Amino acid sequence: MTYVVSESCIKCKYTDCVEVCPVDCFREGPNFLVIDPDECIDCTLCVAECPVEAIYAEDDLPESMRQFIALNAELAKMWKPIVEKHDASADADEWSKVKDKLRFLER
Predict the structure, then answer these.
(1) From 3.40.50.300, 3.40.50.2300, 3.30.70.20, 3.40.50.10860, which CATH number describes the 3-82 domain?
(2) For residue 54, how many other CB atoms are within 10 A of its CB?
(3) CA-to-CA distance for 60 and 28, rounded, in angstroms?
(4) CA separation for the pair 81, 41 (Å, rounded)
C-alpha cells in the first residue's frame, strides 16, 4: 500500500510533508504535490504533517477521490522530486477551504 496526495493539496501546496519523508518520494508540480508510489515506503510520517489533510493511505482514500491514485502515479513520472520545505502559496489558506479543485490542477 502507498500513500496518495488528494485534491485538498491543489493550489495550497503546503510542503510540511516533504520535510519528514525519509525516502524523498514527493514530486512537485506547479500547484500540487504527488507521492511517487514506487518510492513510498508507507511510513505514515507525512499524513500528520499535512495541514489540509490531503494525504491518505491508498486503501483509505474516499471513493470520490480514487482517481488520485492514478494521477499521483502519472504525475510522479513527470515532475521533479522536492526534498526541502518551502513557503506555501500566498493564498493557500483561502484555497484550503475550497472544494472540487481538480479543475484547477496545473500539469
Answers:
(1) 3.30.70.20
(2) 24
(3) 23
(4) 16
CA dihedral in degrees (59, 83, 18, 56; nearest 10)? -10
* DSSP code per residue over 4-49: EE-GGGTTT---HHHHH-TT--EEE-SS-EEE-TTT-----HHHHH
SS3 76: helix
Q: Are the CB atoms for 55 and 12 separated by under 8 Å?
A: no
Q: Kindly list the distances between the CA atom of residue 99 and the CA atoms of 2, 39, 59, 86, in Å, as whole numbers in the listed order.
A: 24, 29, 22, 24
What residues pair up with 35 in beta bridges, in sequence order? 26
Neighbours of 32 (CB within 10 A): 27
Q: Any idea what DSSP says for residue 51?
A: T
pTM of the model: 0.96
pLDDT digits (tens, 9 = 90+) for 37-79: 999 999 999 999 999 999 999 999 999 999 999 999 999 999 9
Cell of 77: 513520472
